Known about the structure:
Composed of 13 different subunits. Subunits NuoA, H, J, K, L, M, N constitute the membrane sector of the complex. One of its GO terms (molecular function) is NADH dehydrogenase (ubiquinone) activity. It is found in: Cell membrane. This protein is an all-alpha fold. It contains 8 helices and no strands. Among the domains are: 1-76, Up-down Bundle (Four Helix Bundle (Hemerythrin (Met), subunit A)); 125-160. The chain has helices spanning 2-21, 25-45, 49-73, 81-87, 94-112, 126-134, 138-159, 172-183.
Amino acid sequence: MEFSFYVCALVAILTTLRVITHTNPVHALLYLIVSLLSIAGVFFSMGAYFAGALEIIVYAGAIMVLFVFVVMMLNLGNSVVEQERAWLKPQLWIGPGILSAVLLFVIIKGITGLNDQGINGVAINAKQVGIALFGPYVLAVELASMLLLAGLVVAFHIGREERQGEVLSNRSGDMATRKSEERA
């Protein structure tokens, strides 16, 4: 398991550097997903299976969907249509693809080399997880949720079109669409 720890740690460091240095937000998000998956691999290699599963489910799953949603909500306009077409080129997917393949190899090697290490497999129900999470850590959980909410509100205000004195639902285009929907 030491091999998988070091490989996953190296992949996490490399992909995190790519997240920081990339100017394209979509590419940075792809590298961030690979980075979070490699952090989960680090947790798995250390024997913290629950932490690794939470890393995949919560961060690589739910939080990344939120990030992708915010990037899409910013709606950079028609200027990015050509850039989006350029993203479909295979050479842009080679970096995340190779690093993901390395992680897949490490996971397969770790699963095939797994032997019984005395893990008793006691089932923990959702109530016990909730008590542990919302007991002593309730303030941290609430602060993190408020921080995510604030980020979502800021992204919405940055991404929406500015029209002075006009409410979003009272736009002339919205009114015409609403009238045509009422007639149908």
